[in-house]
Amino acid sequence: MIAHINGRLVEKAPTHVIIDCGGVGYFIHISLNTSSKIGNEENCKLFTELIVREDAQLLYGFMEMAEKKLFQILI
Question: Could you tell me if 34 and 27 are in contact, meaning their C-beta atoms sit under 8 angstroms apart?
Answer without folding.
Answer: no
